[in-house]
Predict the 3D structure of the following.
Amino acid sequence: MLGRLPALVVAVPLLDILLLIAIGKKIGYPEIIFIVIGVGIIGIIIAVKEGFIVLREVKDEFYKGNLPTSELMDGLLVLIGAAMFIMPGLISDIIGLLCLIPKSKSYMKKTAYKYFRYLLNYHLYRDRLRR
């Protein structure tokens, strides 16, 4: 996964720029700039709201004496979503929105848990074979 990260860091902004140019030619450049700024502002407002909700949930879990693993994953997704809104472009804005919408956030959490469980089992099994 980490081997693909540099390719994603280069590919997503490049695709964003190409998409912005293509849409700008169709509807006009001032309009696309307005859309990008508007979606970014709306996304940041949602990210701040979701961030405060997650912070309250983490605090509540700590007060109950529980480890807030699910809430920390929510916080990570909110952080990733907010970071996506900092990058100008429509693809990054869509990724940012998907990280902030509760339904898609729960799907991403389930997928991440399955992936982490797979990695953990893979490394534990591999370590047993080496002994």
Notes: The mean pLDDT is 85.
